[in-house]
């Protein structure tokens, strides 16, 4: 008889526990915002990091100028821990909701290109002229890219968007600073 009482008690406890959890979930659902129509992109400012990179980097650092407010910066990094592999990055969501990034480094060009483009390859001899400069066209499974190798720095504009968006970003770049 004692086993039956214990068995009934555990089932009752389980039902009470589920009821309490149900109340907690209902409270969370009611009081925590959950706007499914809200824009998931959280724009950031990158001006402080750009200024630091332009003061500190051993190359002229590229930053976009004149893009519309529909280009939203979402990530930025500047790493100068290794003076032989200084890296500048700023990522954007473009007006078509695609990812576009600027990548620069004074490290080994081939290793850098492979790393940031996720092993894209040179697209034959195709080039693109943007901002008065000639860029090599690279194609990859995940990203397409425009690449410019110069003495002491490799600059890449890459992304998931169409070539027109990559070209627009490349044309907006202005290089300043450098030591």
Structural account:
This protein is α+β, with helices and mostly antiparallel strands and 179 residues long. 32% of the residues lie in helices and 34% in strands. The protein contains four helices and nine strands. It has helices spanning 2-31, 47-56, 109-116, 163-172, and strands at residues 61-64, 72-79, 87-93, 99-105, 121-130, 133-139, 144-150, 153-159, 173-176. It has a seven-stranded antiparallel sheet, sandwiched between helices. The longest helix is centred in the first third of the chain and has 30 residues, at 2-31. The chain is elongated and about 80 Å long.
Please sum up the structure shown.
32% of the residues lie in helices and 34% in strands.
Q: What spatial form do the alpha-carbon principal axes imply?
A: elongated
Order of helices and strands: HHEEEEHEEEEHE
Number of strands: 9
End-to-end Cα distance: 87 Å
Annotation field: number of helices: 4
Average of per-residue pLDDT values: 91
Secondary-structure class: alpha+beta
Q: Estimate the helix proportion, in percent.
A: 25-40%
- Which strands sit side by side, in order, in the main sheet? 2-3-4-8-7-6-5
- Return Rg in Å: 25 Å
What are the low-pLDDT stretches, counting only 5+ consecutive residues below 50? none
Strand content: 25-35%
Biggest sheet layout: 7 strands, antiparallel
């Amino acid at each position: 008889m004692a086993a039956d009482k214990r068995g009934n008690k555990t089932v009752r406890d389980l039902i009470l526990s589920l009821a309490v959890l149900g109340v907690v979930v209902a409270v969370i659902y009611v009081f925590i915002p959950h706007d499914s129509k809200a824009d998931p992109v959280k724009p950031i400012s990158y001006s402080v990091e750009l200024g630091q990179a332009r003061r500190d980097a051993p190359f002229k650092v590229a930053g976009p100028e004149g893009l519309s407010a529909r280009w939203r910066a979402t990530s930025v990094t500047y790493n100068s821990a290794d003076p032989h592999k200084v890296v500048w990055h700023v990522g954007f969501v473009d007006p078509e909701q695609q990812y576009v990034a600027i990548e620069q480094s004074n490290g080994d060009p081939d290793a850098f290109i492979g790393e940031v483009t996720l092993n894209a390859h040179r697209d034959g001899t195709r080039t693109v002229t943007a901002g008065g400069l000639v860029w090599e066209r690279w194609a990859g499974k995940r990203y397409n890219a425009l690449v410019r190798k110069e003495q002491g720095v490799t600059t890449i504009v890459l992304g998931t968007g169409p070539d027109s968006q990559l070209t627009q970003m490349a044309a907006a770049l202005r290089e300043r600073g450098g030591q």
